[in-house]
Amino acid sequence: MYARYFTFKSSPENRKTIEEMADGIYGYTKSLRGFVSATYVISEDGTEYGSFSVWESKEDAEEAGASIREKVMPTLEGIATAPPEIVVMEIYEPNS
C-alpha cells in the first residue's frame, strides 16, 4: 500500500472554506480506484492543512492525486499562501 500526504498553508480565516472543500472532495476520493482511507488534518494554529490518504498501489495514489488536484486547485488558488506539497510514501506494516 501507499500513502499520499498533501499539505498546504493558509490562514485560520479560511478554515470553513477548507472544511467545505474537504467535505466535498471526500465522496469523490472514496470512489477512486484503490482507495483505502483518508484523514484530514489541521495544525493547532490553523495555518497548515492536509490530507493523508491510503491507496492499494503507488499507481493508484498517483492517479488519484492528479484527479483530486484538478478538483481542489481552483479553490486552493484563492486561499493557499504557498504552493501545496505532496509526498507519496510506501506503507510498511510491522510483522508483529
Describe this structure in words.
It is a single chain. This protein is of the alpha+beta class and 96 residues long. The model has no long low-confidence stretch (mean pLDDT 95). It contains two helices and four strands; from the N terminus they run βαββαβ. It has a four-stranded antiparallel β-sheet.
Task: Describe how the helices and strands are arranged.
Layout: E1 2-9, H1 15-30, E2 35-42, E3 48-55, H2 58-79, E4 85-90
Helix pairs in contact: 1-2
List keywords for this structure.
96 residues, alpha+beta, Alpha-Beta Plaits, four-stranded antiparallel β-sheet, 2 helices, 40% helix, 31% strand
Distance between the termini: 18 Å
Order of helices and strands: EHEEHE
**Structural class of the helix and strand makeup?**
alpha+beta
CATH topology: Alpha-Beta Plaits
What oligomeric assembly is this protein in?
A: single chain
**How much strand content do the residues show?**
25-35%
pLDDT < 50 runs, ≥5 residues: none
State the shape.
globular
CATH classification, class level: Alpha Beta
Average pLDDT number: 95
Strand order of the largest sheet: 2-3-1-4
Describe the largest sheet: 4 strands, antiparallel
How many helices does DSSP assign?
2
Brief summary of the model shown:
The chain has 96 residues and is an alpha+beta fold. 40% of the residues lie in helices and 31% in strands. Helix 1 (15-30) packs antiparallel against helix 2.
